[in-house]
Structures are given as structure tokens and as C-alpha cells.
Amino acid sequence: MLRIGTRRACAAGVGAALVVAAVVAASVSVATGAGTTNGDPVTFGKVNCQASVGAIHLSQPTDVGGQAIVPNQVNQGDSYTITIPGGSATLPHVGAGFPISQFKNLSTTYAFDAGAAAVNITTVSVGGGGSSGTVTWNKNDGSAATTLPFNATNTAGTVTLTTPGPLPLAQPHDATLTTPDVTLTVTAPMADATVTSYVTEVDTTATVSIGDAVTACAVPHANPQTDGISATVVGAGGPTTSSQPACRPVGGTCDNASTTTTTGGGSTTTTTAHG
Known about the structure:
mainly beta; three-stranded antiparallel beta sheet
């Protein structure tokens, strides 16, 4: 009995980790704006996500992504905006063979860092309003879609976007989650610097028959050259990269990898499918 229970718990944990990729897709579906901004969607390949069901813990390599659209350059002390786009994603009704009854505690954390220089997020707007708003949840079973709370909480240099849920599913239907755009107003450092955007962690919980499968995916966010997803030059601060790969291999190559090379007149993208 112990071995059967352990096997079921491990399978549920794997299922929860695999769900993360679908959850993250809800926040990386919008491309960048004009040539004055940067921040195409970025995927980190095979991040070492940690899944737990009760006393069972396991690691599951999972593709995790993020997107933050920022201006290319601002002056010292300028107030400017960062957009974290919303979008829609399909969340599965089953994971690793286990029916999922609901999702809850979906969250993504972003950080904005300029080294020794201070970055300050002054306001957060969800869907054009305040720091809280709603998501749309459609169980795709013929019933009407519902709206549920969505929150953005911040410190001086980080913001966490959270859908507490619960988000109930109707078997055997996959559901659709639609999230709002989030706009941050930021005060640039009072020194020449480069503000680098990072996605630092993605979490979710899927409820299955044997309990809650809790998954946390910590994304590398120490090196601007390899981990940054967008960047704003402040004053005379230098750029961090000349080429922005859309896939950043961590534990392996992304399921779909592409590289976007930025030039003075625009960008060129080459995509290679894997798997």
C-alpha cells in the first residue's frame, strides 16, 4: 500500500509541475510594442520545479516563462511604466492520469534590479485600475464564465501576481484562464545604470484525489546576461545584451526554442521546434 500511495503521489506531483507551463502561458501571450520598447516573451527551459503531495517531494524539469515590456532608455530619476501582459491559457482537467478538481494559489513573481542603484515601484495597476482586479475563468462545460479575484503586491523592486482561486474544473473539460494586463509605474535610479527585468518564481497548486499537489518553480535571476528578460538603460548606462534568446536553457532545451536578435531597425526571430 505504501508503494502504491507513493507512486500515486509522485504522479500527481509531476502532473502539477506540468500544469505550470500552461498557467504561465496566460502571462506571456502578447508581443512587444514599437521599437522604443523591448520585452518579447522568454522561456526558461527545464527549470527544476519542486512538487510536493503530502510528505512526498520530487523534482520535475518544466519550461517556465515570463514577459515584461519596458522602455529601451530613460533619464536618471524618470518615472516610467513596465507592462506585464495578460492573456489566456488552457488549464488541463487531468495531470499524469489524475483528474484535477481545482487549481488555486497561482502566482508569478517578477524582480527589477539595477545593481547598487535603487529601483522603486511606486504604483501597480491591474487592468487599468488599482492593485487588485479579476481574472475570467471558463470551465468550458456550457456554464457561464465567472470572474475571480486577482492581486498584485509589490515591494520597491518586486511584484507578485496572484490568483488565489479556487478555480474549479468540470470533468472532462479543460478550462480557460484569462488574466489582465498589469502596469507598474517605476522611478528610475538617480544614477547611470541598467534596470534588468527577471521572472523569479512561478507557483501553483492542483487538487487531485489524494490531496494538493503544490509546485514551486524558482527561475534563475542572478545574471543579467543570461537571466534577464528585458532591460532599460538609465542615463548613460550600457546595454546588458545584444541578442535576446527566447529560450534560456536551464536544465535542458525548451520544447520550442527561438532567438531574437535586435538591430537598429527592428528584430529577426528564428524558431526551432524540439520534441
